[in-house]
Amino acid sequence: MRPMRVTVNGETREIDAGSSVAEVVALLTSAPSGVAVALNGEVVSRGAWERTPLASGDRVDVLTAVQGG
Amino acid sequence: MTAQTTSSPAPPHGAGEPDDALVIAGERFGSRLVMGTGGAPSLQVLEDALLASETEMTTVAMRRIDPAQTGSVLDVLRRHGIRVLPNTAGCFTAADAVLTARLAREALETNWVKLEVIADEHTLLPDPVELLEAAERLVDDGFVVLPYTNDDPVLAHRLEQVGCAAVMPLGAPIGSGLGIRNPHNIELIVERAGVPVVLDAGIGTASEAAQAMELGCSAVLLATAVTRAQRPAVMAQAMRDAVRAGRLARRAGRIPVRRYAQPSSPPV
């Protein structure tokens, strides 16, 4: 597969074209819960990660709860 | 400094009794101390402090995941059955705060949010315009919104009007430990509010937490005063007792302040 460039948590990464949100999340964490994803500033629900493909130039943010407030 | 409201009759029940629960959006809490988790030197210190505080609800922030991070604040909260209250700390605009709240709802499976929209890094004071807009949008989206707000009675009222489940005015800037700088405004907010008022931010030590409750606040939210104390778990215990004492004093109905002495013994 040809690689494509996406931005994951602010860093540019090369991933296989056609990769899903779920595949990108798996690069960062294996936590079964407590994680949320925004794709280009919109929430993608966990149930939709597998079937949401990424396109070149997409911005993915993967967040979790940390100490604060 | 103590509350001077004397007009309302003392309710019959004291703090800690079943009918003195804090109720927010229909949910009951036995503890009126909401804790934050920022500033603790380690998860173990945080855990000990949370347990000592006997809090039932605690805030967390949402941040980009760090693959190197081991241990999670969520595990600590889950282990002790403490309700997690995500915040939108670090957001400067309504749009940012709305997205962060939605991410928190997705990650943590709660529609409760401590809404924080700050104006700048220097003061960390709420931006009232962005705050009100974010509150309105989140209420429309089905969130239970608990906004961190200025000690401004007008803004607090506006936040209640758009459907916030509580209002959380600051005593002083976040992490400052300056206490309650404008107790009069806090009293005005309490007098007018139809939702719980939670004193959020500025508390430095136990007497200030008690003062918040004496002024009529329904609860106190604090973090730094405990997590950065020299002995966090001991300060957590002090805060727990201070909130209870202040609540009891409020419910007891304090004596009026007098200009001159009044003998407490019968005349000779």
Quick one: overall form of chain B? Answer: globular
Average pLDDT of chain A: 92
Query: What is the fourth-level CATH superfamily of chain A?
Result: Beta-grasp domain
Please count the beta strands of chain B (DSSP E, at least 2 residues each): 10
Q: What composes the largest sheet of chain B? A: 3 strands, parallel
CATH topology-level fold name of chain A: Ubiquitin-like (UB roll)
Chain pair with largest interface: A-B, 25 and 35 residues
Helices of chain A, by number, come to 1
For the largest sheet of chain B, list the strands in their spatial order: 3-10-9
Percent helix of chain A:
10-25%
The number of helical runs of chain B is: 9
The CATH architecture of chain A can be given as Roll
CATH superfamily of chain B: Aldolase class I
Which residues of chain B sit in consecutive blocks of at least 5 with pLDDT less than 50? 1-12
What would the keywords be for this entry?
heterodimer; A: 69 residues; Ubiquitin-like (UB roll); 5-stranded mixed β-sheet; 1 helix; 5 strands; globular; B: TIM Barrel; 3-stranded parallel β-sheet; 9 helices; 10 strands
Q: Which helices and strands occur, and which strands form pairs?
A:
The complex is a heterodimer of chains A (69) and B (268).
Chain A: E1 3-8, E2 11-16, H1 21-28, E3 35-39, E4 42-44, E5 59-66
Parallel strand pairs in A: 1-5
Antiparallel strand pairs in A: 1-2, 3-4, 3-5
Chain B: E1 22-24, E2 27-29, E3 33-35, H1 43-53, E4 57-64, H2 73-79, E5 83-86, H3 94-108, E6 112-115, H4 128-140, E7 144-149, H5 153-161, E8 168-169, H6 183-192, E9 198-200, H7 206-214, E10 219-222, H8 224-227, H9 232-252
Parallel strand pairs in B: 3-10, 4-5, 6-7, 7-8, 9-10
Antiparallel strand pairs in B: 1-2
InterPro entries (chain A): Beta-grasp_dom_sf, Mopterin_synth/thiamin_S_b, Thi_S, ThiS/MoaD-like
Pfam families (chain A): ThiS
Protein name (chain A): Sulfur carrier protein
